[in-house]
């Protein structure tokens, strides 16, 4: 499951996961955004304003849960993500739209033998970043070259209009990336 399926990261993650053989479920904030996620390869996109993703995942998986969640929301989603995970599932936190400090019962992590991890590129060493770049070159670049995976660009702004780009991003009305040019 990919939260924020219509975001720049989400649209790319859907396409990559599909290319690598995953069944993809996403969340997004409107029917239009959900339709785009499904056009990109998601089997099901959940409008989080109208449906509870934990309930939908339970129905879709017959109570089993999903194996992996890519989350950029945090906050109140963390405990719900844990409920939506299958036994031995993995929750990967990559950003926080909601607070990073929460109160949570950790017992379900133990009982389901879950992995809850986080990832960010910034603090990694140059050697680690180089290894990641090499893997991307080997596994992802061919998918980009063949157009099996393509970036979704919502709008491009000149740098002088960065404030307008930021307002668009804050409105959450976009699908895909917002790009600044010089």
How would you sum up this structure, described in words?
The protein has 182 residues and is an alpha/beta fold. It has a domain at 1-120: 3-Layer(aba) Sandwich (Rossmann fold), CATH 3.40.50.720. It has 8 helices and 7 strands, in the order αβαβαβαβαβααβαβ. The strands form 3 sheets. It has a 3-stranded parallel beta sheet, covered by helices on one side. The chain has a two-stranded parallel sheet with strand order 1-2. A two-stranded parallel ribbon has the order 6-7. Strand 4 (85-93), helix 5 and strand 5 (115-118) form a beta-alpha-beta unit. Helix 3 (53-60) runs parallel beside helix 4. The termini are far apart. The model has no long low-confidence stretch (mean pLDDT 96).
CATH superfamily of the domain at 1-120: NAD(P)-binding Rossmann-like Domain
Number of helices: 8
Order of helices and strands: HEHEHEHEHEHHEHE
In terms of per-residue confidence, which ranges show pLDDT below 50 for 5 or more consecutive residues?
Answer: none
Radius of gyration: 17 Å
CATH fold topology of the domain at 1-120: Rossmann fold
User: What's the main sheet like?
Assistant: 3 strands, parallel
Provide key terms for this protein.
two-stranded parallel ribbon; Rossmann fold; 182 residues; three-stranded parallel β-sheet
